[in-house]
Every structure is written in structure tokens, then in C-alpha cells.
Amino acid sequence: MAIPSFRRAAWFGVADDNSTRVAQSVAVIRHAPMLVIGNAVGAVAGVLSLYHSFPLLELLPLPIIVLALQIPLIRSAVKLRGAPLPATVSRRRIKLIIGYSAMLGLVWTGLLFFYLPRAPFPPTAFLLSGIAFLCLGAVTALSAVPTACLAYALPMMAGGLTVALLAPDPAAWAVAFMLVLM
Assuming Cys at both sites, which of 2, 82, 136, 152 could form a disulfide with 105, CB separation 3.0 to 4.6 Å? Predict the structure, then answer.
């Protein structure tokens, strides 16, 4: 009896055939403006919220890193704008989308742990809410590639929940509860 191959198994009930991969890739590129704008607004909101708690030079990595990570998505969207649907999309392309999403989610998580434990609680609570909304936006924008959505959102939600639970403010439990509900 042969052992089934999990390499090509359908994750989350999504088939692994060319037409599905084409649809997934096209859906991600169509949602690229929302993904880029959402991450850019999150980075700017982070700088504006933390401006009174950190020197500007210490805040500059936040928008620079997040915006630099938007470049591959912007390039793909511009390159494919107005182009006909691709005839084929490789498994590698879908793995790149998942990897890119994971990298962006892990960068956001790292930024959470770098800034928020040292910030006052009101901006921390605001930014944790913003992280939750970025994750909700990813559910919509990356719904065609559920693994990419999880790779982006899970580290951010886990990091946000950790920051909220470790915050000394009594209201932190309410923020943690809100994150669990999202």
C-alpha cells in the first residue's frame, strides 16, 4: 500500500491545479492596492501614535521596513496591470506569495515587540487594534490563498496578544480579549 503524498495535498480544501493557481495569483494581485495601502497606513499610524514616546530617528525603521516590503507586491501589480490572465502559474509562485506574507507578518510582529512594550498603554492599545484590523484585511485580500493569510495574520495576532497580556495596565485584558475575538 502506497503512502499518500502530502506534498500536493489540498490545503484548506483548495485544489492544487493550474487553474486554481492562476485564480489565486490573479486574486492576490487584484487586491494588491488594498494590501499596500493597509500596510502603509499601519506604518504611518504607528509613527504618529508613537511620536511622543520615541525619538523620530528610532521610529524611522517602522515605515521604511514596511514600505520596502511592499515593493515586490507593487512591482507585480504594475507589471501585470492590463495584461491578459496568465496561462499558467507555478507552484513556486504560490509558495512565494505565502513566503512573502509570512515575512511581512513576522516583520510586523518584530516591530510590535520592539516598540510596544516600551510605549505607554493608550497608543499600544490603539496600535494593537490596528494590527487586528490589518489581519482582518488580510482575510479579505488573501482569502484566495488561505495559507498566505494565516502566515501573515497568525504571527501578528499571537504577538499582539502576547504584548497585551504582558502589559501592566489593567485595561490590557480588555484589549487581549478583543484580539481573541478577532
Answer: 152
- List the chain pLDDT tens, one digit each, 182 residues: 554 444 544 566 677 788 889 999 999 999 999 999 999 999 999 999 999 999 999 999 999 999 999 999 999 899 888 888 888 998 999 999 999 999 999 999 999 999 999 999 999 999 999 999 999 999 999 999 999 999 999 999 999 999 999 999 999 999 999 999 98
Cα dihedral 169, 57, 43, 149, rounded to 10, equals: -80
The per-residue b/e assignment along 38-48, b for 16 or more CB within 10 angstroms, e otherwise, is: bbeebbebbee
Q: Residue 65, exposed/middle/buried by CB under 10 A (0-12, 13-18, 19+)? A: middle
Q: Can you give the pTM of this predicted structure?
A: 0.88
Give the three cell numbers for residue 85. Answer: 490572465
**At which residue does the C-alpha cell 506569495 appear?**
97
Q: Is 139 helix (H, G, I), strand (E, B) or coil?
A: helix
**Residue 27 near residue 144, CB atoms below 8 Å:** yes
